[in-house]
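The following block was generated as part of the benchmark described in Methods. Ligand: pyridoxal-5'-phosphate.
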Amino acid sequence: MLLTQPKIENTGSQYLQPLSEVAGETSPNQILAPLTARVNHRDHLEVGGCDVTELLAQFGSPLYILDEQTLRTSCRQYRDSFLRHYPGESQVIYASKAWSCLAVCAVIASEGIGFDVVSGGELQTTLQAGVSADRIYFHGNNKSQAELQFAYDTGCTVMVDNWLELEMLSAIATPQAPIPIMVRLTPGIECHTHEYIRTGHLDSKFGFDPHQLAQVFAWIRDRPQLKFIGLHAHIGSQIFERQPHQDLGGVMVEWLQSAIASGLQVESLNIGGGLGICYTEADDPPSIDEWVGAACRAVVKACETHNLPLPKLMSEPGRSLIGSACVTAYTVGSRKEIPGLRTYVAVDGGMSDNPRPITYQSLYQPILANRMSAPLSETVTVAGKHCESGDVLIKDTQLPKTQTGDVLVVLGTGAYNYSMASNYNRIPRPAAAIVNEGEANLILERETYADLIRQDRLPDRLRDR
Ligand code: PLP
């Protein structure tokens, strides 16, 4: 039987079908393709009003294509959901590890979102995008002295992860100019896609063990150069359940109570990120609004139970803010048919621009973007071009019969693709373009061979041998 390729249109599309509605809007984390994905009169995929095939002709292949409207919608849904469900102050922070570059930071900052950074490089990028330091939170389990000094000099808040950091910060800051800190804890709540367990101790390299809380609070209280703001925890990523974050809210409010009992003033509670997105049609995450609502209700209830004023509630989504806003477009190259076994269709990228499949066995959904109405007629494995057998983007997927030169699009590549990209096999990183209402702008230049050897040095004694 010939199936048709999944349709992308205004209505009736299985990729655009809203799975649930938030104030009349589709939750971007619940759909496979960006909100603006359409099929145009040439039977081509269009994103942000731009023909994907033409984008490849203009910017080269492969190409990350970021849909501004989807990204802004995610930001607004997070922000508005907190306003709707939380009676206290709230702040949404973007986990910029998902994708850090100037344009991405600028769009997200313009929506009133703060930033979580985990390195001096991410901090530099965020600052250079024009974000003010009072909206930046510096994470990491092994920040260097130089990174801590950088954080202090710029005035951002440090998410303290361990005792060494507490000591280093105490030496850097002064009582006249204290450094704002939040303390990261390992909550002992583990998440899996379909189940979660609570344990007394979580095996994680991040954060303080809650058993050390009293000691940590007393230590901070005695150091006026440290300005305690509140507590942080992050329990995992690509989570589809609401219960773990509800539990987390309750546990963290108990910790806040301990902080207050230790004589500290508490302002904020940060419940981390972790909401999942749809990578394939089998994925069924809650909407942004449902997830935020569940977490807010848990925190409000716990505060009522413990008779505590509501803290400023923060969360730091990465994947669910930007994941669905981007697609990667490739050009189809060679084909290898192994009768009775498998057909490989190779594209001009792979594990260097999207390391998630080889790293986490992540699943993705492809579309043939230059022949959108072509029927699905064969099962193929989409392989990358790297010298690694495991460099497979999508295993055993249904596509129309592909030809060399076809444009193959992989959906949902906004999070942890560009940011985890490498130059494996000395392949230059792709360009990225942002699209909106028919306009496309380059936001990341394609790397060149010259870029690849820019940092290389050839000592004289190794020349001319
Ligand atoms: N916060 C912290 C501390 C993280 O480590 C991460 C991701 O690993 C995030 C937030 C973002 O998580 P996600 O992209 O799943 O929302």
